[in-house]
Write a structure and sequence with these properties.
Number of domains: 2
Radius of gyration: 21 Å
CATH class of the largest domain: Mainly Beta
Helix content: 10-25%
Shape: globular
Strand order of the largest sheet: 1-11-10-4-8-7
Number of strands: 11
Low-confidence stretches: 20-34
Length: about 180
C-alpha cells in the first residue's frame, strides 16, 4: 500500500478513536448535574443563577434540586424567598422537604408553601437571612416532569421592612432530560 493511500486510512482511524473516547466521557460529564454554559437563553449572564440536580434530572423520577444564590446577589437581608416557575413545568414539590442553607449551615424555617395553581414556592425563614451570604435552597423529593425540556425558575426575595413587593434576584435555567 502506498503512503498516499494509507494517509486517509490513518486519519479515519484517528477520528474513530477520538469519537469513542469522547463518547466515553459524556456520561461522566452529565452525571455531575451542573447547568453548564448557556449562550442563548434570553436571560442576561449576570442574572443566571447556578443550580444542580443530584439525580440527573431524569423525566418522571424523584430528584433533589440545589438552587444557589451567590452572596453578591444578597444585597439586603431576606425574610422571604419565592420561586416562580413556568406553566410548562409539570413537576411536583414537597413543602416538607425544603431546606435553606446559608454559608453551608441549615437555617430553621417558619413556613414553606407550594401553590401549584399559581406556580410559586414561598419560603419563610424563622430569622431574616443576612445580606452578603451564600444561599442554597434545597428542594428534596421533587417529582420531575415526564417531558424533557428547559424551565426558567425565577428567584424573588423580600427584605424586612420592605414594601410587600418581591425583588428579582435571578433565574435558574433548569433542564429536565439532558441525556
Amino acid at each position: 500500500m502506498s503512503r498516499q493511500n494509507s494517509l486517509p486510512l490513518r486519519w479515519l482511524s484517528t477520528v474513530a478513536i477520538a469519537g469513542c473516547l469522547t463518547a466515553g466521557f459524556i456520561p461522566f460529564a452529565q452525571a455531575q448535574g451542573l447547568p453548564g454554559f448557556t449562550i442563548f437563553s434570553g436571560v442576561e449572564r449576570e442574572n443566571q443563577l447556578s443550580w444542580r440536580m443530584d439525580f440527573d434530572g431524569e423525566p418522571g423520577r424523584r430528584d433533589r434540586y440545589r438552587l444557589r444564590i451567590p452572596a453578591k446577589k444578597m444585597e439586603f437581608a431576606v425574610e422571604q424567598f419565592s420561586i416562580t416557575y413556568p406553566d410548562t413545568y409539570r413537576g411536583q414539590f414537597d413543602p416538607e422537604a425544603v431546606e435553606v442553607k446559608v454559608d453551608g449551615d441549615e437555617v430553621s424555617l417558619d413556613e414553606v408553601t407550594w401553590d401549584p395553581e399559581n406556580r410559586i414556592i414561598e419560603i419563610y425563614p424563622q430569622q431574616p437571612v443576612p445580606a452578603d451570604t451564600r444561599v442554597e435552597i434545597v428542594l428534596s423529593e421533587v417529582r420531575n416532569p415526564t417531558r424533557i425540556g428547559t424551565h426558567y425558575f425565577n428567584a424573588m426575595v423580600r427584605s424586612p421592612g420592605d414594601l410587600p413587593l418581591m425583588r428579582y434576584v435571578g433565574t435558574w435555567i433548569l433542564t429536565i432530560g439532558r441525556r
